[in-house]
Amino acid sequence: MEYRQLGASGLVVPVLSFGTGTFGGKGELFSAWGATDVAEARRLIDLCLDAGVTMFDTADIYSKGASESILGEAIKGRRDKVLISTKATFRFGEESNAVGSSRFHLLKTVDEQLRRLGTDYLDLFQLHGFDAKTPVEETLSTLDTLVRAGKIRYTGVSNFSGWHLMKSLGVADRYGYPRYVANQTYYSLIGRDYEWELMPLGLDQGVGAVVWSPLGWGRLTGKLRRGQPLPSTSRLHATADYGPPVEDEYLYRVVDALDEIAAETGKSIPQIALNWLLQRPTVATVVVGARNEEQLKQNLGAIGWNLTADQVARLDAASAKTLAYPYWHQRGFAERNPPPV
User: Fold this and answer.
1) Catalytic residues
2) What angle (nearest 5°) sits at the alpha carbon of residue 180, between those of residues 157 and 112?
3) Three-state SS at 140
4) Backbone phi, then psi, for 333, in 5-degree steps?
5) Helix (H), strand (E) at residue 111
6) Kindly report the CA angle at 16 between 193 and 301, in degrees rounded to 5?
7) Eight-class DSSP state of 191
């Protein structure tokens, strides 16, 4: 296992983390992902730890808190061997204040998450989305309180726009609050929008990428093919509308390129897609999930080797898209405003 520093922090994380969205299976979305119970979770965590995967990612909304509870049970007796990453901000309850990044909600939510996880601290806590109705100063001062109390060690965000993140970092610097060191972001071979602004921001400000859905919401498994129906076992039947949209022809173009490189390397399409991500700037860790041991072992095969520069370039070309303004315009001034490399 390779380990990298998380952004501009001193925290070292494995390049692959394990996502526990499959733990619990409560609700329409998460039941389609999986329904891992405590016994199976322990087995998956055993395999992770044996491979050096020491960071486990969850959130309060995953299976209505069951993901955190199952993770907490599964790591009992070995809390010192793992890093826990969790998230909150989205609605979690019917009460008027059971949502957002207010002082009221964050203080209550973090205590509930600590209880479910069976721990007294979180290694990484991330805001799951931007709350435009709560002043940034209130949110950051609350996180500062939680860090000083020892309940949170590092902070990050998820699904923020560039200006959301940059404004937050500016406020943190102005008042001496802890800076965000992680951005849990969607990034894949068929979803490269992260590169346009958030990646340059991460390089400039020391914010590491914690990548979610690295296989494009399950589309880069190798099972989706041009001219063939969606496999009956695909979770996309139930979850496609929840995830990032992808045009069919664009997907098939990328899969064609992955097929060629799979034939050259003897690696699977998911392994190649994950390895490509691990060579991108700012990427600290890629969150992989698995409903069973075989899927986990397949994902672990993404490390210990590297695509060649030519193979990376071919994947880059196959997945390239016309950028939105002003990014396409900025690429014409690469002499003084180079893209991240």
Assistant:
1) 62
2) 60
3) helix
4) -120, 40
5) helix 103-117
6) 105
7) B
